[in-house]
Amino acid sequence: MKKLIAILLVSLLALGAVAETLPVLTMGTNAAFKPYEFYEDGEIVGIDAEIAAAICDKLGYELEILDMDFDGLIPAVAAGKIDFAMAGMTVTPARLESVNFSVSYATGVQSIIVPVDSPIGSVDDLYAEGAAYTIGVQQGTTGDIYCTDDFGAENVLAYKTGPDAVAALAAGKIDCVVLDNNPAKAYIETYSNLMLLDSDYAVEEYAIAIALENTELKDKIDAALNELIADGTVAAVILKYIPIEEVAEQTAAE
């Protein structure tokens, strides 16, 4: 009997060891992009965090999330320092030179934040002849890329984080800020002198960045993500963080 108990204990310990040694996938993110990734009670939560966890669960991996500067994510993926990056990240030709991307899992809208008394009433005002507004963006984001291309580097100030750019706007240091719509809404909640314009600057698709040579991981992530989209998991996660009326407005904008 004692021998049987000993065997059972060894078996249970072995099972425990297997459970504790799941392979790990490391996700890089920039946890200042609510509702996609942000801190809550000391943990990184949000749309990207939950979708990444669902992908890892389906593939049999343990998820580790690292908070990094946004413009360091693509280099970290390319160098193999992290397995993938999720940070409300858009596929662009420049990024495709360094990394690969998964299928898209969400749509983002680049919006414009202005002071409530701003002469900027729509995105068209930024393109008006003779306009020379100073535009704040988060460094390395598509807002940074698009605005630099459209209005010239001399008219764009890149800040380390979105909140830094919004704080500069509230202090009167710049004329407007271009950021993703949902984080922008969260950022301006504490500023009574700021508002979002109704007109969108750009609409884009979010995807997961993976190293160019890691085609096996890309195939696995794509397969898992397609299943999670098909079974409604991705939609449920997005609706958990973004009210359904906002999703409807965003879809209509497309």
Written description of the protein model:
This protein has 254 residues and is of the alpha/beta class. The chain is globular, with a radius of gyration of 21 Å. It is 43% helix and 22% strand. Strands 7, 8, 9, 10, 11 and 12 form a 6-stranded mixed beta sheet that branches. It has a 5-stranded mixed beta sheet with strand order 4-1-5-13-6. Strands 2-3 form a two-stranded antiparallel ribbon. The protein has helices at residues 2-20, 47-59, 73-78, 93-96, 123-127, 142-151, 162-170, 181-187, 215-230, 233-241, 244-253; strands at 24-29, 38-40, 43-45, 62-67, 84-85, 99-101, 106-115, 135-138, 156-159, 176-180, 194-196, 202-206, 209-211. The termini are far apart. Residues 1-10 and 245-254 have low confidence and may be disordered. Helix 2 crosses helix 9 and helix 2 packs antiparallel against helix 10 (233-241).
CATH homologous superfamily assignment of the largest domain:
Periplasmic binding protein-like II
CATH class of the largest domain: Alpha Beta
Strand content: 15-25%
- By secondary-structure content and strand pairing, the structural class works out as alpha/beta
